[in-house]
Amino acid sequence: MASSLTCAGVIWAFLSFLCAAASCVGFFMPYWLLGSQLEKSVSFGTFRRCSYPVRDESRQTTVMVEQCGRYASFQAIPSAEWRICTVVTGLGCGLLLLVALTALMGCCVSELISRTVGRVAGGIQFLGG
Fold first, then answer.
1. How many domains does the chain have?
2. What are the pLDDT digits (tens) for 65-82?
3. What is the CA radius of gyration of the chain?
4. Any idea what the Cα angle at residue 40 is, between residues 48 and 80, rounded to 5°?
5. What pTM was estimated for this model as a whole?
6. Largest CA distance in the chain
7. Which domain does 79 fall in, by range?
């Protein structure tokens, strides 16, 4: 199995993959903000939420749904800032995964990553982060 990476490049590839995986897990988990509402513990992230209030029209009250789920649509995300954060964070995670998987392929394929490609990948990682 030939590699186009130096020892430092192999370490960079594996650390890149670990960081990209951690970023993606953090993006998909709904535990960005924790608090309580109606005496229940609630949490939410950019596009997921746990234990959220809904209006019960039959009883004319607000009840807590004690489950995790996504927002029904992109427009259902509470604010424009959270929508922007969802898009920017999602794009960043995508870029980080793209670079990390390319770097891991460079560990197995010779002549895949050159010095220029490595520099461009580092710049993409900087933007993704």
1. 1
2. 788 878 788 888 878 888
3. 20
4. 35
5. 0.69
6. 68
7. 5-126
